[in-house]
Amino acid sequence: MELWYTEKHSDSVNFSLKVKEHLFSGQSEFQKLDVLDTYEYGKLMTLDGLVMVTEKDEFVYHDMIVHTPMAVNPNIKNVLVIGGGDGGTVRELMRYETIEHVDMVEIDKLVCDAAKEYFPTISCELENPRVTLLYEDGVKFVKESPDNKYDLIIIDSTDPIGPGEGLFSTEFYTNCHRILAEDGILVNQNESVFYEDTQEAALKANSKLKKIFPIVHVYQANIPTYPSGYWLFGFASKKYDPIKDLQADKWNNFGLKTKYYNTDLHIGAFALPSFVKEFFENGTIQFL
Ligand code: SAM
């Protein structure tokens, strides 16, 4: 009998993958976690039935959420990662010997345990000595953190539902602004614009950030297993502009081999299609 995994991307759009084996299923106090082995995308992890990470396309997401800010300020030393339980964001950060320390605040230990067990190529740096892994609510952590501590905050979160809801709040972003250094940068996963659910979340997050940070932009990437395959990230900064202050030579001198990110693509990622630009300028979007 054929086994298929299906995720509802909207009321009238389903996304299905043929499954070889259902490897693991677990329930934590926060969410349900499943690990499936699929024919096309290798192993994938879902939280509450939604795709979080797959072996085949995770490189896109993790390249874009880490190397984009690092190419704008290559001198980043102290980083805070909120969420990121699969470990892919920390893996990319640890490729920079110049990064002195990463605090990673993940609310659900089950995600890290499952990542270590089933995704060794993604979770491989979770126990790096430069990483402090804390199982805590990110909203509480930033509230209790001191001012001006971090050069970079990466919000590698789930969608704004359940435990992830608070990570899209004004209170959370305001605390992030406070605990960032004077030239600090914040990057978040900023949902997408093709389906209503993610549209609303994308706009809300962007407008909240614009009320708190002087410099706020959106950039794009193609992630096939995320709703519509067109995904957005937010870039909020106290000082640096992601294009004017791009330090391409310095970043290329790191000599990192990356499968998705490069400094030419960096510029294109911030060059949004007209309907997306208009959407973040005036909140309206017209498809059909
Ligand atoms: N790339 C994925 C995406 O865009 O959907 C996200 C990957 S990562 C697995 C998301 C992580 O955020 C999960 O491990 C989840 O447990 C964590 N998370 C959700 N709410 C949180 C909170 N309030 N504090 C810290 N971590 C949280």
From TrEMBL:
Enzyme Commission number(s) from the entry: 2.5.1.16
Alphabetical list of Pfam families matching this protein: Spermine_synt_N, Spermine_synth
Keywords of this entry: Polyamine biosynthesis, Spermidine biosynthesis, Transferase
Pathway where it operates: Amine and polyamine biosynthesis; spermidine biosynthesis; spermidine from putrescine: step 1/1
Active-site residue numbers: D156
Function, in words: Catalyzes the irreversible transfer of a propylamine group from the amino donor S-adenosylmethioninamine (decarboxy-AdoMet) to putrescine (1,4-diaminobutane) to yield spermidine.
GO biological process: spermidine biosynthetic process
Species, as recorded: Tepidibacter formicigenes DSM 15518
EC category: transferase
Any GO CC annotation of this UniProt entry: cytosol
Protein's UniProt name: Polyamine aminopropyltransferase
Positions with a binding annotation for spermidine: H62, D86, D156, S157, T158, D159
NCBIfam families in the cross-refs: MFS_SpdSyn, PRK00811.1, speE
Catalytic activity, reaction form: S-adenosyl 3-(methylsulfanyl)propylamine + putrescine = S-methyl-5'-thioadenosine + spermidine + H(+)
Annotated positions binding S-methyl-5'-thioadenosine: Q31, E106, D137, G138, P163
Alphabetical list of InterPro entries matching this protein: PABS, PABS_CS, SAM-dependent_MTases_sf, Spermi_synthase, Spermidine_synt_N, Spermidine_synt_N_sf
Subunit structure and binding partners: Homodimer or homotetramer.
Originating gene: speE
Classification lineage: Bacteria, Bacillati, Bacillota, Clostridia, Peptostreptococcales
Domain PABS: 2-238
Similarity-based family: Belongs to the spermidine/spermine synthase family.
